[in-house]
Design goal:
Number of helices: 17
Order of helices and strands: HHHHHHHHHHHHHHHHH
Strand content: under 5%
Number of strands: 0
Largest sheet: none
Helix content: over 70%
Structural class: mainly alpha
Distance between the termini: 45 Å
């Protein structure tokens, strides 16, 4: 198992942290945070981040301070804490500019664009991704270029422009493969699979999802594995294999709960509701949509909130309550627009 083989390295990094100070210790802490995030040891990652912020601030190196805040922003984004993510990423952009750290400025800008995309701000997200892409190409930052292309692919996918999304994600996949970045290659494969699914190209979608799952497992990316299983569930649902879809959705939700990934867990609730509706079980569907709605509102995840409201509107239709359906639909439109 790749994670078991990685453990000696991680423990070596942890031991080395005690032998160095200042900027070197911050760098080692950031390496450990990256590994802890992949294997979903969220509490330990936050502890290491807190220490890294304090040490970086004490050093007074604006580039290093920006890098730590980028890691913080990704952490808060993953936990659906948008306000915290925006705050630290805006700090990162300011610090990077002050320290003439252009790669870090681009990375922070792209990460902030991701936050805005996830929380219903497509115009701000597009501007951020395009700014990141232009800067990455200007300075020859290939990883930054691939991240920005993937971000634009996700954005256009969400906006319904599937052909354009397909183009951006194929560019991103090509760069990740050229760089040998297997974990990011797996993410790009999953993104391409969801676009192909939306285009009705089911065999190609399945091939991409299976590759995504295999690479995610190989690299120890539990969140990626959960996403791949969720995508395979969506494929099964589109093909009318509802029992298979529900089983896969359950595995997707279980992994998301296990690793502390609330957004993924809420998406699983919404998808369970959709499957229950297709099975003619509006009462069970309503319970799933209701769970998703309550938590999405608490965590301020508007796209999931909107999807849950649309699901509840359909439940009202199935149960013959036209007024209730209209009210839910209006709520959903207000959230999604």
């Amino acid at each position: 198992d790749r994670l078991d083989r990685a453990l000696p390295f991680v423990e070596t990094v942890r031991a080395a942290e005690g032998l160095v100070a200042g900027a070197e210790r911050v760098e080692l802490l950031l390496r450990r945070v990256a590994w802890l995030e992949v294997v979903a040891r969220t509490g330990e990652a936050l502890q290491a981040l807190t220490e890294a912020v304090a040490l970086a601030d004490a050093q007074g190196d604006d580039r290093l301070r920006a890098r730590v805040r980028i890691a913080q922003g990704r952490h808060w984004m993953r936990l659906a804490r948008a306000d915290d993510a925006v705050r630290v990423l805006e700090e990162a952009i300011e610090l990077a500019r002050r320290g003439h750290a252009r790669a870090e400025e681009g990375t922070a800008t792209g990460t902030l664009a991701n936050v805005r995309m996830r929380h219903g701000e497509p115009d701000g997200a597009r501007a951020g991704f395009e700014s990141h892409l232009a800067l990455a190409r200007e300075i020859g930052d290939r990883m930054g270029e691939a991240r920005a292309l993937g971000g634009l692919g996700n954005l256009f996918h969400g906006l319904g422009d599937l052909e354009r999304a397909l183009e951006y994600d194929r560019w991103a996949l090509q760069i990740w493969r050229e760089l040998g970045q297997r974990r990011f290659e797996s993410i790009a494969l999953g993104n391409l699979g969801t676009i192909l699914l939306g285009l009705g190209r089911f065999d190609e979608a399945r091939e991409h999802f299976e590759q995504h799952r295999a690479l995610a497992k190989r690299t120890g990316d539990r969140e990626g594995e959960a996403r791949a299983i969720g995508n395979l569930a969506a494929l099964a649902q589109d093909l009318g294999r509802l029992a298979d879809a529900l089983e896969a959705i359950g595995r997707h939700g279980a992994i998301c709960r296990e690793i502390g990934y609330p957004r993924g867990e809420l998406v699983a609730h919404v998808n369970t509701g959709i499957a229950r509706l297709a099975l003619g079980q509006p009462d069970l569907a309503g319970a799933s949509f209701g769970q998703a709605l309550e938590r999405a509102r608490a965590l301020r995840i508007p796209d999931v909130e909107g999807e849950a409201l649309l699901g509840l509107a359909q439940v009202e239709v199935e149960e013959g309550r036209a007024d209730g359906a209209e009210a839910r639909l209006q709520e959903a439109l207000s959230v999604l627009h």
